[in-house]
């Protein structure tokens, strides 16, 4: 029982360290409009699955959303933050 407790605390500890190291990234990401189709863990990764034509249509929709919201939005591709901008 004691070994199970220690083994279950290790992933929690690593997750807390991971979040703490990236706290400034989360702060800056929250100051910019988030894309409307962002999912909690995978972000917009799901949008880039499929055929090339479907991916191109999604990119056009992201571009339209960006231009409608001041020219700067952000989106997450898994744990990576990307800013999308237009001039």
How would you briefly describe this protein structure?
The chain is α+β, with helices and mostly antiparallel strands and 87 residues long. The chain has 3 helices and 3 strands.
Measured by DSSP, the beta-strand proportion falls in 15-25%
Q: Helix and strand succession?
A: HHEHEE
**Spatial strand sequence of the major β-sheet:** 1-2-3
Uncertain spans = none
Total of helices:
3
Structural commentary:
The chain is an alpha+beta fold. The protein folds into 2 domains: 31 residues; 55 residues. A 3-stranded mixed sheet has the order 1-2-3, sandwiched between helices. The model has no long low-confidence stretch (mean pLDDT 89).
Keywords:
three-stranded mixed sheet; 16% strand; 87 residues
């Amino acid at each position: 029982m004691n070994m199970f407790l220690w083994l279950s605390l290790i992933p929690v500890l690593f997750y807390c360290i991971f979040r703490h190291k990236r706290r400034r990234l989360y702060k800056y990401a929250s100051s910019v409009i988030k894309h409307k189709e962002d999912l909690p863990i995978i972000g917009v990764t799901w949008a880039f699955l499929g055929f090339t034509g479907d991916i191109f249509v999604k990119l056009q929709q992201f571009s339209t959303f960006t231009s409608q919201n001041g020219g700067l939005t952000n989106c997450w591709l898994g744990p990576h933050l990307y800013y999308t901008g237009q001039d």
